[in-house]
Design goal:
single chain; about 500 residues; alpha+beta; Ubiquitin-like (UB roll); DNA polymerase, domain 1; Uridine Diphospho-n-acetylenolpyruvylglucosamine Reductase, domain 3; five-stranded mixed sheet; 17 helices; about 20% strand; binds flavin-adenine dinucleotide; binds FE2/S2 (inorganic) cluster; Mopterin_DH_FAD-bd; iron ion binding; CO_DH_flav_C_dom_sf
Length: about 500
């Protein structure tokens, strides 16, 4: 049974297959065809919807999500909003009205998704300003990019869409927002159903604790585990595989912890990247900046760090950072828990050390001690919403002018995320000199034999990785000469991009 609200109204659906997406539910079962299918892989944003969840203060907080790769069963206890639900009678929502007035729609196919991303941006602003949107300053370029980076428009161009984003704040909210936006009863009902234990759907299981998870796995050995579904669901939509039985990890209390300990940060495997962003901003700013280039807002609100690790893609962005930080992973099975260094988890292409009964429970990041630095640089063809061709995550410290405890981790250079051991040895104990880095670049050539694929040729990857080491040298030399050798230097460091401003 899925109890949820849809555009302000309660819905209760039973007997749905485990692997039906929100997009299929909308278009094929609810007859709501305003939400479009473009790519069916989370890339284009045409299917963007808004999901409202209790904000912990009696209201609802909305985020955007890709309906094409969102399991419909994850709607339980949430408010699903689509483009059909925004207008108040004939009065369009400010996001819609501004799109019309700024001539920001041409083909119209991508428009519902863009409107929904603007809707979540507007509602977030309204939430922040206590409903006084007209008094807000215009959005920064960074905020607009974060909000719209997951929506492609192939014809109109982005300027009128950005104009609409800025203009929508000026529309009088009380006449333009749907009546349900300030309906306390709706918020209370969503919160109540969010708390409720779901009735078992037969093939879609939602355990609350690890003990329940282990019992379910024993009884349903072929069931697949799902967290944010942003990797798993592509098997459904791109490879047309069926996922007849699923166990959802998102409700597991043990996988939702986010705790600061003396030794470091403990992150439950089902914590989303969106939830991690502010925490990383404080403690691991280079990791936080990487997240600005990790997929899109739609994906970051669903994708989990645990899913990124367990998926074990050689071009996943999180794992190299974990290797550079010397993170450890807590794995758990009915037999008990074991902790292992993240670098021992990745065995071969998409092969991990996870045992058949084990689940990834926590990721543990040691704090950056004083003087310890972290830099992360991602190279991809597109700045927004693209997977890495090569990613370098580097950590080190300088003691008396010499590099110590150097950890150089790369994605995209081997079948697994891996450290460049030879290059590390070449730098360990050396000053950050041209000669030391020349030796490290030489060693890097033996460390990796990267593949050629659509994201880059082997030669490109070798050159790019060596250039990232050169960038590291220049960064260390510049920082040292400016006396900026502190762990939290907030520079534009993760972005290898071409900002026009
Ligand atoms: C459009 C798009 C853009 C993307 N961009 C990026 C990007 O820029 N960088 C990047 O790194 N990735 C990117 N991804 C990939 C994906 O978003 C990430 O890998 C994400 O972190 C996966 O997390 P999830 O919770 O969605 O995992 P899921 O899809 O739910 O699960 C992935 C796999 O891990 C298993 N699993 C999940 N959690 C656990 C656990 N706790 N224990 C054991 N097994 C588990 C699942 O069974 C499944 O096999 C992108 C994906 C899409 C669709
Ligand atoms: S249809 Fe393209 S992101 Fe969903
Ligand atoms: S309006 Fe549809 S692609 Fe731009």
């Amino acid at each position: 049974m899925i109890d949820f609200h849809f555009n302000g109204e309660p819905h209760s659906l039973a007997g749905l297959p485990a692997d039906i997406s929100v997009l299929e539910l909308l278009r094929l079962r609810l007859g709501a065809t305003g939400t479009k299918e473009g790519c069916a892989s989370g890339d284009c944003g045409a299917c963007t919807v808004a999901i409202g969840e209790p904000d912990g203060h009696g209201g609802l907080r909305y985020h955007n999500a890709n309906a094409c790769i969102l399991p419909a069963h994850q709607l339980k206890g949430r408010h699903l909003v689509t483009v059909e639900g925004l207008a108040r009678g004939d009065a369009l929502h400010p996001a819609q009205a501004a799109m019309v007035d700024c001539h920001a729609s041409q083909c119209g196919f991508c428009t519902p998704g863009i409107v929904m991303s603007l809707f979540t941006l507007y509602e977030a602003s309204s939430h922040e300003s206590g409903g006084q949107t007209a008094t807000l300053a215009p959005y920064s370029q960074a905020r607009l990019e974060a909000a719209l980076g997951g929506n492609l428009c192939r014809c109109t161009g982005y300027r009128p869409i950005r104009d609409a984003a800025q203009a929508m704040l000026a529309y009088p909210a009380d006449q333009h927002r749907p009546t349900w936006t300030d309906n306390q009863q709706l918020s209370d009902q969503v919160a109540a159903s969010h708390q409720e234990d779901p009735a078992d759907d037969g093939h879609y299981h939602r355990p609350n604790h690890l003990a329940e998870l282990f019992a379910l796995r024993r009884d349903h050995p072929s069931a697949r585990l799902v967290a944010g579904a942003t990797d798993l669901w592509l098997e459904r939509t791109q490879q047309l595989k069926e996922l007849p039985e699923l166990i959802d990890l998102c409700n597991l209390a043990e996988l939702q912890v986010l705790e600061e300990h003396d030794q470091g940060l403990h992150i439950g495997a089902a914590v989303t990247y969106a939830r991690l962003e502010p925490v990383f901003e404080t403690h691991f700013p280079a990791f936080a900046r990487l997240l600005h280039r990790f997929a899109s807002s739609q994906i970051r609100h669903r994708a989990t760090l645990g899913g990124n690790v367990a998926n074990a893609s050689p071009i996943g962005d999180g794992p190299p950072v974990l290797l550079a930080l010397d993170a450890s992973l807590l794995l758990e099975s009915p037999e008990g828990a074991r902790e292992m260094p993240a670098q021992d988890f990745f065995l071969d292409y998409r092969q991990t050390a996870l045992g058949a009964q084990e689940v990834l429970r926590e990721i543990r990041l040691p704090w950056l001690t004083e003087g310890r630095q972290l830099k992360v640089w991602k190279l991809s063809k597109r700045r927004e919403d693209d997977i890495s061709a090569v990613l370098g995550a580097f950590s080190w410290q300088l003691e008396d002018g010499r590099l110590r405890d150097v950890r150089l981790a790369f994605g995209g250079m081997a079948a697994i995320p891996a450290r460049a051991r030879g290059a590390e040895t070449a730098l360990e104990g050396q000053p950050p000199s041209e000669a030391a880095f020349a030796a490290a670049k030489q060693a890097l050539d033996d460390d990796f034999q990267p593949l050629s694929d659509v994201r880059g040729s082997s030669a490109y990857r070798r050159l790019a990785a060596a250039n990232l080491l050169e960038r590291l040298r220049l960064k260390i030399v510049t920082d040292t000469s400016q006396g900026a050798n502190t762990p939290n230097t907030p520079a534009m460091e993760v972005m290898l991009d071409a900002y026009a401003d």
